[in-house]
Amino acid sequence: MGLPNVAVIIAAKDAGRTLEPALQSIARQTYQPAEVVIVDDGSEPPLTLPPVLSRAQLLRTDVTQGPGAARNLALSRVSSPLVAVQDADDVSHPRRLESLAEGLTASPDLVALGTQAVMFQPGKRVHPHPLRPTDRTVVHAAFAGGKMRLIHPSVMFRRHVAEAVGGYPVGVYRGEDFIFLRRMAETGAIENLSGALYGYRSPRFTPVRRYLEDAMGKREPGDAMRYANVRELTRYPLHLARRAGAARHAASLVPSLSEWRAYLSDLGVRVR
Question: pTM here?
């Protein structure tokens, strides 16, 4: 039996330098998505689509609405039963979509599925992202404790469940991914694959800082803690991955760090 159709949704803001390798990584998937929708959330100047993925559709908003609203717009334009998230400054390993679609197809009780990841910066070393649990009971226990044990942009989910929970919350610019996935977890199981199939660019070296802070410009009095969380996110340094113990599993990482270095280089991202 074949795999169901997959859509990829991308929220982007001022991502002109990083969108091309992100889309190249989608174009190289072993299981090609039926739909790819990118929402340019108020970029100045507006984003243009690099000619690397003919099926990609670019939507624009006049003003920045935030990543939750942008993803909801993209979600409203797709019809595939499975939807994969990706950030405009990250990359997917070629086997990411196929592996996630196989996992969701094999386990009908799963409503969402994530992967492990590596972290990278152009000109810097590639490091393992801190491990995420593959045991769904651990993932769900974390949600109950107010924590998320998934790498949100690595996730693929069932579209009908996402629509049933109302999509991403709007007006929340730090933690909209946690709220969305926690709501999903209330309807079914969520877990992570063991493979590192997502390349996560360190946030403080990408346009995500300006994206989040522009969105936070709409904040009301009393949102100081939420804004502080945004600043904490954008200062996340790669050495925390090692301090969190990620270096201990580097030798057994699949795909390996050397494979990831070669792949990133092939996408035009120079790393060491």
Answer: 0.86
For residue 163, give the nearest of 82, 64, 56, 66 by alpha carbon: 82
User: Is 271 inside any structural domain?
Assistant: no
Residue 272 within a domain:
no
- 47 in any annotated domain: yes
Give the three-state DSSP class for 40.
strand
Query: What's 55's DSSP letter?
Result: T
Length of the chain: 272
Q: What is the pLDDT of residues 214-230, one digit of tens each?
A: 554 544 433 433 433 44
Q: Which residue range is the domain that position 249 belongs to?
A: 6-266
Q: How far apart are CA 4 and CA 7, in angstroms?
A: 10
Q: Diameter of the chain by CA atoms? A: 54
**Cα–Cα dist 244/211, whole Å:** 27
Provide the number of structural domains found in the chain. 1
